[in-house]
Write a structure and sequence with these properties.
This protein is an alpha/beta fold. The chain folds into two domains: about 180 residues, Periplasmic binding protein-like II (D-Maltodextrin-Binding Protein, domain 2), CATH 3.40.190.10; about 220 residues, Periplasmic binding protein-like II (D-Maltodextrin-Binding Protein, domain 2). About 45% of the residues lie in helices and about 20% in strands. The strands form two sheets. Strands 1, 2, 3, 4, 5, 8, 9, 10, 11, 12, 13 and 14 form a twelve-stranded mixed beta sheet that branches. Strands 6-7 form a two-stranded antiparallel sheet. Helix 10 packs across helix 17 and helix 10 packs across helix 18. The termini are far apart. InterPro entries: Bact_solute-bd_prot1, SBP. Belongs to the bacterial solute-binding protein 1 family. It is found in: Periplasm. One of its GO terms (cellular component) is periplasmic space.
């Protein structure tokens, strides 16, 4: 078997040789640009090659930001990859609406494969009663901080939003940046808006829009959420030039102790693996917001990635074989071990593989949350996501008023 990796917008090439070929598949993924992702996909594909030397994979790898554009272009041109990484919600939904996805219903019904997934995760890749992709991981977003730095400075993790703002002033007075944020690719700032909307109004807002609920609305809370984000930016709580800074660059500020906190996903555990010995990663939930109408225990969390098969794929049997292998318990437990991210396969997020921090989030936060609200940007249809990103960028740099951003976003979510 031969795996050929082609980089899209990045310099990356991997070649591994195995034995003779009987089938061939194009396989696209977005696991480039972050070492823990690269380590996982290399492991998984090498092991697949050993188990199935008769299947040839032509692999295309890209970073998340460029991948979406490349995949959308390929799908629109009628030349999709056979097996590919996709996002749940609106991103996947656009392909389903275009009859471009192969239904996995029959395959999932065989040998208990479908039963091996968490039902709440599989529901996020199921549309119109049919499942079109297998969910891989579940991410949640929390505040991260350096426990040793906080102890040294005498700072404590805040329980309320007002306490968080008070802490920011102390951090600024100490010459540090309160929050690491690199919003060049737009998605990192989305956690701020979603959590504020969840705390102020409640969970399920965007899911209501996507489901076609005529009563769905951001409400006045949408404007208030954008306003609070604008205030954070105006007060200098983010790094200078954060809208042009990558998430990786922001992470370095956090790991180097130049920024005290970071609102980010559970992948931050893997991203912190190379921190210095005096760095000890801690976490706390997004604080409660006074007079907020939402359940203050709710957690932003949902399926972060999935893999599907194109309807045009001629070699569907081998394509299903690849998906079954990628979601096998052994491979998924290795995913947890390498990426420190929770997975959708039952029993695969073991304490030994997850480590104390991730296991703590799984049990202490997600296990006690009243609701898990799926990531807005993956739940929205693509046009809604684009408006979401540009509105947030504008609010953060002061070029878009909070009320205008809320209006634009609601109109985009209501558009058919």
């Amino acid at each position: 078997m031969r795996l050929r990796a082609v980089a899209l917008g990045i310099a990356a090439s991997v070649s591994m040789s195995f034995s003779a070929l009987a089938g061939e598949l194009t396989f696209w993924h977005a696991y480039s640009g972050q070492q823990d992702k690269v380590d996982f996909i290399n492991y998984a594909l090498e092991e697949f090659g050993k188990a199935h030397p008769d299947i040839k994979l032509n692999v295309v790898a890209a970073e998340q930001s460029s991948y979406k554009t490349k995949l959308n272009t390929a799908m629109a041109s009628g030349n999709p990859p056979d097996v590919f990484y996709t996002l749940p919600g609106g991103f996947l939904g656009a392909f389903v609406a275009g009859n471009q996805m192969y239904s996995l219903d029959d395959a999932l019904a065989k040998d208990g494969w479908g039963e091996s997934f968490l039902s709440s995760a599989l529901a996020q890749t199921t549309m119109g009663g049919h499942t079109y992709a297998v969910p891989i991981d579940i991410d949640s977003s929390v505040f991260w901080y350096n426990k040793k730095l906080f102890a040294e400075k005498g700072w404590t993790a805040p329980a309320t939003y007002d306490q968080l703002l008070e802490l920011c002033e102390k951090i600024k007075a100490d010459g540090l940046v309160p929050f690491a944020l690199g919003n060049k690719d737009s998605w990192p700032a989305t956690f701020w808006f979603q959590y504020l909307e969840m705390r102020l109004k409640g969970s399920g807002i965007v899911s209501g829009f996507v489901a076609g609920n005529a009563d769905a609305t951001l409400g006045s809370e949408g404007t208030e959420a954008f306003k609070r984000i604008a205030d954070l930016s105006a007060k200098g709580y983010f790094p200078v030039g954060f809208n042009g800074m990558s998430d990786q660059e922001a992470n370095m500020l956090f790991l180097n102790g130049q920024a005290a906190m970071m609102l980010n996903g559970t992948w931050q555990i893997g991203a912190s693996a190379d921190a210095s010995d005096d760095f000890e990663l801690g976490f706390f939930p997004f604080p409660t917001v006074a007079e907020g109408k939402g359940d203050q225990s709710d957690i932003l969390g949902g399926v972060a990635a999935a893999f599907g098969i194109a309807e045009k794929t001629t070699n569907k049997e081998d394509a299903v074989t690849l998906l079954r292998f990628l979601t096998s318990p052994a491979v998924m437990t290795k995913y947890v071990e390498l990426r420190k991210t929770m997975v959708t396969v039952k029993g695969a997020t073991t304490e030994a593989a997850a480590g104390p921090v991730l296991y703590g989030i799984s049990n202490d936060l997600m296990g006690k949350a009243a609701n898990l609200d799926p990531f807005y940007d993956t739940a929205m249809p693509p046009k809604g996501t684009d408006t979401y990103y540009t509105s947030l960028q504008g609010v953060l740099d002061g070029s878009v008023a909070p009320a205008d951003a809320a209006k634009r976003l609601e109109e985009a979510l209501k558009a058919k």
